[in-house]
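WARN  no MSA supplied for this record, continuing single-sequence
INFO  ligand: coenzyme A
INFO  echoing inputs
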Amino acid sequence: MSDDDLNDDIPLPGGDLALQTIAMPADTNANGDIFGGWLVSQMDLAGAIAALKVAQGRIATVAINGMVFLTPVHVGAVVSCYADVTEVGRSSIKVNVEVWIRHKKTQEPTKVTEGEFVFVALDDSGKTRVIK
Ligand SMILES: CC(C)(COP(=O)(O)OP(=O)(O)OC[C@H]1O[C@@H](n2cnc3c(N)ncnc32)[C@H](O)[C@@H]1OP(=O)(O)O)[C@@H](O)C(=O)NCCC(=O)NCCS
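INFO  complex generated
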């Protein structure tokens, strides 16, 4: 068995690391777990960082598609957001964003959620702009 075969079993994040932060007590819900909304906010930022490189100017989020939360995030976790530009349209940019943490006990990379973020390039007056 080669090293490549062994690596096939290890789940890995898709896309490039766009943003990394630490989950803080202020970001928790009543159960002490991290708010889903906080995670979405981090994902929006990570997706925007990737989309800005393509749009080369003002953008706005127009849609967030197909998000599922797979595992809770605890205070102190290092939260890593990976972004992958999957499609560039006339004015729109689709970015798949994955959130990963390291499992508290095993330290194994664990996927928390993923979603498709759609950004639109805008001109100075807030109208859609053709991406060059
Ligand atoms: C973004 C905005 C300018 C779009 O205006 P619009 O005239 O309706 O634009 P269009 O219908 O021509 O859509 C623009 C692009 O977005 C895409 N788009 C629009 N809604 C979409 C959706 N729900 N899912 C995926 N793509 C979508 C269109 O397919 C189009 O792509 P293309 O130009 O690459 O072909 C307008 O909806 C807006 O200002 N929204 C608020 C954005 C915002 O403030 N976001 C922050 C959240 S508070």
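Helices lie at 3-7, 36-55.
INFO  checksum written, moving to next record
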